[in-house]
Design brief:
Largest sheet: 5 strands, antiparallel
Order of helices and strands: HEEEEEEEEE
Number of strands: 9
Distance between the termini: 75 Å
Length: 153
């Protein structure tokens, strides 16, 4: 009786394993990229909607008109009152909140429309001057004209 001993893997077995590892790696990287895009967009939505709520509250508390001015080209927005830009606005750089940073790359503000303008103004009682929309990559934030409440489509 002959005994045969296997001393390792054949070349075919090694090639099959390398191909399978490549396929699984490609699948994992694709899912990670898609997942990160969704997460980045949700972070931007949270930032914008939280700032809308804060500006509405500030207008009511200070009894003055406060405006969020969106800049589509710079992927940013700033907050202004009657005296000018509010430089100490939370999460801003001298009053400018930028969505064009390393955490939110590939995220675009596509359109902003508040009654034909890119400004969302809250009057002294916290009511918006006009409602409108902010459109990001795949989601749209809609601000109601009477209450200033927002929803996401």
């Amino acid at each position: 009786m002959l005994k045969t001993f296997s001393r390792g893997f054949s070349l075919i077995e090694l090639i099959v394993i390398i191909v399978l590892i490549g396929i699984f790696t490609t699948m994992a990287l694709t899912r990670t990229y898609t997942g990160m895009t969704t997460i980045r967009e949700q972070i931007a939505i949270d930032q914008i909607t939280n700032d809308i709520d804060l500006v509405r509250s500030m207008a009511f508390a200070r009894n003055e008109a406060i405006t969020i001015k969106f800049n589509i080209e710079q992927e940013s927005y700033s907050v202004h009152n009657g005296s000018g830009i509010i430089t100490d606005f939370p999460n801003s750089d001298n009053g400018v909140v930028s969505l064009d940073n390393s955490y939110l790359r590939n995220l675009d503000i596509k359109t902003v429309n508040f009654g034909g303008a890119t400004d969302l103004q809250f009057l002294p009682l916290g009511d918006p001057f006009t409602g409108g929309t902010v459109e990001l990559n795949t989601k749209t934030i809609t601000v109601e004209s009477v209450t200033g409440k927002w929803n996401i489509d």
